[in-house]
Design a protein that fits this description.
The complex is a heterodimer.
Chain A lengths: L1 H24 L9 H11 L4 H23 L8 H39 L2 H7 L4 H39 L4 H11 L2 H27 L4 H33 L3
Helix pairs in contact in A: 1-6, 1-8, 2-6, 3-4, 3-6, 4-6, 4-7, 4-8, 4-9, 6-8, 8-9
Chain B lengths: L4 E12 L2 E12 L3 E5 L6 H8 L7 E6 L2 E2 L5 H8 L2 E4 L11 H12 L4 H14 L15 H12 L6 E5 L7 H18 L2 E6 L2 H7 L2 E6 L2 E6 L1 H5 L4 H8 L15 H6 L1
Parallel strand pairs in B: 3-8, 3-9, 6-7, 7-8
Antiparallel strand pairs in B: 1-2, 1-4, 4-5, 9-10
Helix pairs in contact in B: 3-4, 3-5, 4-5
Classes of the chains: A mainly alpha, B alpha/beta.
Chain lengths: 255, 265
């Protein structure tokens, strides 16, 4: 079990280094993936995720606002709902919830697509055409996710804050102008950029796990199903794991 | 007549787990000929083909393609070599996220600096060769099995390779399409002097296209020779395979243990 875990970890790391190698060396060898391919992946990973990310972030913002208002009204500190929503979204909920949604939507799709390609000999066909599957399939997906996931997180932060704003203004009858100024008064630049660094790391995790599971699919339709499930489960665990590690590094390491 | 050896396999062996698939296969294939490898299912012929394309690496033995040894080749040299070979897969292995035209043009778009219009012309020519001109915009899922196979063939010859490998090109095709594919393989070999290596167990196809035939059995080369010589072979195994008789030295049952003993256990 432990041996297996170590072996898979090393294999994923090897895939990661090879992907980075192709991104760095590719342009010099004139073997960088075509921009259209990367663009198509960006549309799929980013644009097409907007709707689900919108709903998740919007209602999360509303829920945090309501939950915290329930406690804060007792102290007559209703206005603190604003920074509460903004900071918890920017630091934690924005990056983590968005990444979980993207892992379920995009990571699973990557694993299923590459897995099907593997079991139907399409990966082998690429190789016999002297097209490296990592360069041709993994690199565009990797770039798409590490670029689009932080963008989606910014989008989620804004939408979530908007959701909280609606609760604050229409339910708690706070002054809209004060709500906004209070949000940004307490939110530090660090809250935002640590969230974005997190989402960047989660983007690496989702793309690498999805591609690794897909490329290592064995045995027909059942195998594809298995790698898809496994990619989502592994991504979820790793996202939460890296989230706690990074939070520790950002907020407790220098003390 | 001294002919150039274009593919040379020297006692290639391969094991998957405990099962030895290839037991020292040695073959020489000459430039421009159509070489057919025949044998029953599971005799290792597809595995051997995968060794020739570089998809699998032998446990021991050497494979030389176009005068270069595959095992010692770096990635760049291997890529260069791969551009000179084409492979026609049994399941066609078309990229199902791309249209027929994109499938055929992929090697051209990735490996050449040809202009878009030129590539479009080349696609039309290649698809015309397999009788599918006008199907560029269709997706592979909209095609029948035989059509997919022909698109796969068009893709394999897109870069004008020196060697084309066919994995069961006529399996699952109706007799007419099978005949067309056979004729296509012949045309390519004769007109463009492409070397063809065909793995098949379709006897009709073997004797209509082959310049030379090798019979593989249990990971070994049983016999190599011209089709007429194979037809008149004295080897009972070869004769059984050609006639398709269930009785003979080739056993249908793979198990080596005693049946009675196993079921009484």
């Amino acid at each position: 079990m432990v041996v297996l875990l170590v072996r898979h970890t090393l294999a994923v790391l090897a895939l990661f280094f090879e992907t980075v190698f192709w991104i760095v060396v590719g342009p010099f060898k004139k073997k960088f993936p075509k921009p259209e391919g990367i663009f198509a992946q960006m549309v799929f990973a980013g644009m097409d995720s907007l709707i689900i990310v919108f709903f998740v972030a919007f209602f999360t913002g509303i829920v945090i606002a309501m939950q915290s208002a329930y406690q804060l009204t007792r102290f007559g500190a209703n206005i603190f709902v604003a920074p509460m929503v903004a900071i918890s979204l920017a630091r934690e909920l924005g990056p983590v919830l968005t990444s979980l949604v993207v892992a379920g939507r995009v990571g699973a799709a990557i694993a299923a697509e590459l897995g099907t390609m593997k079991v139907t000999e399409q990966i082998e066909a690429l190789e016999t055409m002297a097209l490296n599957p990592i360069r041709f399939l993994v690199v565009p997906r990797f770039i798409a996710l590490i670029v689009m996931l932080p963008c989606l997180v910014i989008f989620a932060d804004i939408i979530g804050i908007f959701g909280g704003f609606l609760v604050g203004v229409f339910n708690l009858h706070l002054n809209p102008y004060r709500y906004i100024t209070f949000s940004f008064q307490f939110m530090a630049w660090k809250d935002v950029y640590t969230g974005l660094i997190k989402s960047f790391v989660f983007g690496i995790v989702i793309s690498m796990i999805g591609c690794y599971m897909g490329l290592n699919t064995k045995g027909g339709a059942e195998g594809v199903g298995k790698s898809t499930t496994l990619s989502v489960v592994t991504s979820f665990i790793l996202i939460i794991l890296f989230d706690s590690i990074l939070t520790g590094v950002f907020y407790f390491a220098n003390k | 007549m001294e002919r150039e050896v274009i593919i040379k396999a020297d006692s290639v062996t391969k094991k998957f787990g405990d099962r030895a698939i290839l037991n020292g296969v040695s073959l020489e294939i000459y430039r421009g000929e159509t070489f057919v490898i025949m044998g029953g299912s599971g005799c290792g012929k597809s595995t051997f083909l995968r060794h020739l394309t570089g998809a699998l690496v032998p446990d021991s033995g050497k494979i030389c393609l176009l005068g270069k040894e595959l095992t010692g080749l770096g990635e760049d040299d291997m890529d260069k070599l791969k551009k000179k070979i084409g492979m026609c897969f049994q399941s066609a292995a078309l990229f199902d996220s791309m249209t027929v035209g994109e499938n055929v043009s992929l090697p051209l778009r990735e490996h050449t600096k040809l202009d878009k219009n030129v590539i479009e012309t080349v696609i039309k020519m290649k698809l015309e060769m397999v009788g599918l001109r006008g199907f560029e915009a269709l997706m592979p899922s909209q095609l029948s099995g035989g059509m997919r196979k022909r698109v796969g063939l068009a893709r394999a010859i897109a870069l004008d390779p020196e060697i084309v490998f066919y994995d069961e090109p006529t399996a699952g095709l109706d007799p007419i399409v099978a005949g067309v594919v056979d004729k296509l393989i012949l045309d390519l070999s004769k007109k463009l002097s492409i070397t063809s290596v065909v793995v098949t167990h379709d006897m009709k196809s073997v004797f209509s296209i082959a310049d030379r035939v090798a019979m593989l059995y249990e990971g070994k080369v049983l016999e190599v020779g011209r089709p007429e010589a194979i037809k008149g072979s004295k080897n009972p195994m070869v004769q059984q395979f050609i006639s398709g008789s269930p009785d003979g030295p080739i056993r249908f049952f793979q198990q080596k243990d005693d049946y009675l003993e196993t079921i009484m256990k």
